[in-house]
Design a protein that fits this description.
CATH class of the largest domain in chain A: Alpha Beta
CATH topology of the largest domain in chain A: Glucose Oxidase, domain 1
Shape of chain B: globular
Radius of gyration of chain A: 27 Å
Number of strands of chain A: 29
Strand content of chain A: 35-45%
Structural class of chain A: mainly beta
Distance between the termini of chain A: 20 Å
Number of strands of chain B: 24
Distance between the termini of chain B: 38 Å
Number of helices of chain A: 6
Shape of chain A: elongated
CATH architecture of the largest domain in chain A: 3-Layer(bba) Sandwich
Oligomer: heterodimer
Strand order of the largest sheet of chain B: 13-12-11-14-15-16-24-20
Chain lengths: ~350, ~575
């Protein structure tokens, strides 16, 4: 049975499509190498438009107005530039009140697009541009480790992976000097203190990878402007051992943390990418995960929430819930050595390598 | 009704989490589901699209039915020797970004928004002539929202056409600034006097589809013709967006119907079957959306509502509402975490009692939030849980992907009673197999199919609810009640304020129910010499007496409140 999966891959080819929300300008070319924080495209997401009717302003017919226009379509104009005229006596002219571009011109009506700070689309990972979609964005490919999360606060950052404790359930505390944290991406089981979370920005931390985030800190985490990712969910869950193993192998390395929201229909989810030093390493294939014996899984609900293990077998009979409803379930072997029965709906496949 | 020539239908349902394929065939003159398969929906994975999920579910159907639908190349064949017709219903996929426009007034804009919200749209901007914004701001609103669909209304058939030129010009120029392949489709549902001007002004920039005016007179709204067109447009736009849908349609020849459309269609049909003066209410609880559809006298009022994101809701009043209906002592932080976890794993099934409590309270909250919006959207229905007995609904049907995953009949009854707080006498019904909307689509090709399936007991009758309303505070004794089952012993009960209990009556049985209310108690039906007698039929929970009053008042203290909720929870027995 096909099942959607979370990826924990120590070496893989990562391909990401990065597109602007509105048409704009792509600033990269196919084949170009990019860094995660590079701007690859930009658009005037919040540009405003001024409708200027020279017919009304100068009292002209559409034909007269068209013949008196002093600008052409897509001309860049500066404040004070003459747009139309002169006409009449004393001569009257229409001047631009703002810097902008003429984006519409017909029958004496023009639209001036007035710039605001552009929306900038970042590459999101270190890699190479493999395809450019004119006006929209690009496809970027990279090689490295990939660890997907379940929740993020929609930011992007990069820095050196720092693991303050050697335990995957360690709580992040404010117990280290500011110098240690400059440009660091911290990995910890969880954080419980509002003050610690608030102080991170001041200390120069570039991002936070957690096993879980307490519900009470989610509103604050969404406001902080450093990227924060929860790998396993909410509460006080440790970093799961599979993700912890891969991440701890890369301590001290440059990592990219893209804490975008998990959007199932647009195929985006929070992730950590650790670009490899050697792009020519052979990449072993990843099998399409399915609920077959041996498949690595994670439990996403109830008593064993956040625990990982291996799929043993589908239960022959559906199991009964306390409310008298029957549902399909499977026996799984958890990493802590126990076997347990879990509803299929509460299992998630892990693509691990 | 003459039976159609269609004798078999392959029904494919692309749900938000689960893809199902059902094969219906005529057996002994009636349609039956002869094979059924399901698999996880794969719509969200661009390199895969919907097809792997469909093929997986279809393989199960092939095995059960002994037919070969999948040819070696992995494509689906739906040749006439295999099946007479294929239908596809679609719930998966992001909503269509929609801008609502009124060329005249705010009142028309409300009608346009009502129309938009009855389908799979996300209203990203709305503009009306005279809404106080300069034309260039209105133009920017369109441009910044990257719409896929613009719905335009405004003006009546008997009033002045008005000066809509400026707003149409603003729309025209906004459309002209978008790349041609990114321009939205336009649905015009306004005054016929402005139709030509609209076509002339913006028809050169984007395709315009014209439908009947949604507000033919000042005091009359007519959404139905426009809704039919809109549903077709949104189905097409959504199918285009969801990877693999075009391929599915090409291979099967099946027409795509949005789940929202077919659900409304079935509720309207059930409204005509039940001939209930109060109207039928359908609640379709999806994984990310909830649809409410009320039908009475052939008319349909429908609204589709997105569940708000947990990360915003946990720090709002909604959190308090969720906590106030918890039957278990759950710390607020834990409840918030359960809610957040549900957002990332919406298909997970709660196993622990505190998770069950949070999930049920969340479902109650979601129905109530949607009902509040529905009330605002359709003030003409005069719906209110605290306004006594009008108009009420009978029956009330719970359907959808969410309840079908794990909800028991008793939990469904509690959910509907607590969330909707129905008044008077009504019946509760559960679509436990989540098939109602699929039947709505099947009915388009084989009108007898839904009729046969409904007659065969597709819907589960949960119970007959008697929910009296007390007109004066302080009345403790509300009603005398007796139930005389056919061939059984009579049961007599005195109903007091605050009671919630049921009188079991097995399916297949019937009984005479006699209610003698106190003078201050209303049942919403005319009494005969101070009493009301009605025939009731057996169901999952029989006759349910809810004398908790409207609105239900909960104690302020958490312990006292949970004790009461727990008592109510255990008060319904099977």
């Amino acid at each position: 049975m096909f099942v959607p999966a979370t990826h924990y891959l120590s070496l893989t080819k990562i391909r990401r499509e990065r597109y602007l929300p509105l048409p704009g300008t792509v600033l990269v070319a196919a084949g170009q190498a990019v860094k995660a924080a590079d701007v690859i495209a930009e658009t005037g997401l919040t540009n405003s438009h001024l409708l200027i009717d020279t017919r009304e302003t100068l009292g002209l017919s559409p034909r007269q107005a068209a013949s008196l226009m002093q600008v052409k379509l897509y001309d860049a104009v500066h404040r004070g530039d003459i747009l139309a005229g002169p006409v009449g006596f004393p001569p009257r002219q229409l001047r631009a009140a703002h810097d902008g571009t003429v984006v519409y011109l017909q029958d004496g009506q023009l639209i001036l697009e007035v710039y605001s700070s552009p929306y900038r689309l970042l590459a999101g990972l270190d890699g190479q541009v493999t395809k450019v979609v004119p006006g929209r964005g690009a496809v970027i490919e990279s090689t490295g480790a990939l660890i997907q999360g379940v929740w993020g606060n929609d930011r992007l950052g990069c820095g050196e992976l720092s693991i303050p404790s050697d335990r995957p359930d360690a709580e992040l505390t404010g117990d280290f000097s500011e110098k240690d944290l400059q440009r660091s991406i911290l990995l910890a089981g969880t954080v419980r203190s509002v003050e610690v979370l608030r102080s991170l920005k001041k200390t120069g931390v570039a991002g936070l990878i957690l096993g879980s985030l307490p519900g009470s800190l989610v509103p604050l985490a969404t406001q902080l402007d450093i990227p924060i990712i929860a790998l396993d969910g909410f509460g006080q869950l440790p970093v799961n051992p599979v993700a912890y193993r891969i991440l701890s192998e890369h301590a001290g390395r440059e990592v990219i943390i893209n804490s975008s929201h998990w959007d199932r229909y647009n195929n985006t989810r929070p992730e950590v990418v650790i670009p490899t030093q050697n792009e020519n390493m052979p990449i072993p294939p990843v099998n399409q995960p399915s609920f077959m014996p041996g498949q690595e899984i994670r439990v996403n609900s109830s008593l064993n929430k956040g625990k990982v293990g291996k799929f043993i077998a589908l239960e022959r009979e559906q199991v009964w819930l306390e409310n008298g409803i029957q549902i399909p379930a499977a026996t799984i072997h958890l990493e802590d050595g126990n076997n347990t029965c879990v509803p299929l709906a509460n299992l998630e496949a892990l693509a691990v390598r | 009704m003459a039976r159609s020539a269609i004798e078999s239908v392959l029904a494919i349902d692309i749900g938000e989490l689960t893809t199902r394929v059902l094969l219906y065939e005529q057996v002994d003159g009636g349609f039956l589901a002869v094979a059924r398969g399901e698999a996880p929906t794969t719509a969200g994975i661009p390199e895969l699209g919907v097809m792997p999920g469909v093929l997986e579910a279809l393989k199960v159907v092939e095995t059960a039915a002994g037919k070969v639908f999948i040819i070696p190349q992995g494509n689906i064949q739906a040749a006439p020797n295999l099946v007479d017709a294929v239908v596809v219903t679609l719930a998966a996929g992001a909503d269509i970004r929609t801008v609502c426009v009124s060329l005249t007034t705010d009142i028309s804009l409300e009608s346009v928004i009502r129309l938009a919200c009855s389908s799979d749209t996300a209203v990203v901007a709305s503009l009306a002539r005279g809404d106080g914004r300069p034309l260039q701001e209105q133009m920017d609103a369109v441009l910044h929202s990257s719409p896929e669909l613009i719905i335009i209304g405004g003006g009546t058939e008997h009033g002045k056409a008005g000066q809509a030129g400026d707003l149409l010009n603003a729309l025209r120029m906004a459309l002209a600034l978008l790349p041609r392949d990114k321009r939205p489709e336009v649905l015009y549902a306004g005054s016929s006097a402005l139709e030509e001007k609209t076509r002339h002004t913006i028809g050169t920039q984007a395709p315009v589809i014209v439908t009947a005016n949604i507000q033919p007179q000042v005091d009359q709204e007519s959404l139905d013709p426009a809704r039919t067109i809109l549903m077709g447009m949104t189905a097409r736009l959504k199918s285009r967006r969801v990877t693999g849908m075009q391929s599915l349609v090409d291979q099967t020849g099946g027409e795509v119907t949005l789940r929202t459309t077919s659900f409304g269609r079935m509720i309207r049909y059930l409204g005509s079957v039940y001939q209930s003066a109060r109207g039928v209410l359908g609640v379709d609880m999806g994984i990310t959306h909830l649809t409410l559809a009320g039908a009475r006298a052939g008319q349909l009022w429908q609204g589709r509502y997105l569940y708000p994101a947990a990360q915003q809701e946990i720090s709002s009043d909604s959190m308090q509402q969720l906590l106030s209906w918890l039957t278990e002592p759950v710390y607020p932080e834990k409840a918030a975490e359960c809610w957040l976890q549900r957002d990332i794993y919406p298909g997970a099934i709660p196993e622990l009692s505190d998770e069950v409590a949070v999930d049920l309270s969340l479902a109650r909250l979601r129905i109530q939030q949607a009902m509040q919006q529905y009330q605002q959207m359709y003030p003409v229905l005069q719906l209110s849980t605290d306004s006594g007995l009008t108009p009420g609904w009978e029956p009330i049907i719970l359907s959808g992907e969410w309840p079908a995953r794990w909800l028991s009949p008793a939990q469904a009854v509690h959910l509907l009673l607590d969330a909707l707080q129905p008044t008077g006498i009504t019946n509760l019904v559960l679509d436990s197999g989540n098939l109602l909307s699929l039947l709505g689509a099947c009915g388009q090709v084989a009108p007898n199919l839904p009729v046969d399936l409904l007659e065969a007991g597709l819907l589960q009758h949960l119970g007959t609810v008697v929910a009296p309303v007390c007109l004066r505070a302080g009345v403790s004794r509300w009603m005398e009640l007796s139930m005389q089952p056919e061939g059984g012993e009579e049961v007599r009960v005195t109903v007091y304020a605050g009671n919630l209990f049921n009188l079991p009556l097995d399916e297949g049985q019937s009984a005479r129910l006699t209610l003698i209310p106190e003078p201050q108690i209303q049942l919403g039906r005319k009494l005969n010499h101070g009493e009301l007698t009605l025939k009731v039929t057996g169901s999952a929970l029989g006759v349910i007496i809810d004398a908790r009053g409207r609105k239900i008042q909960l104690p302020a203290g958490a312990l006292e409140r949970q004790k009461l909720l727990k008592k109510w929870q255990s008060s319904l027995i099977r």
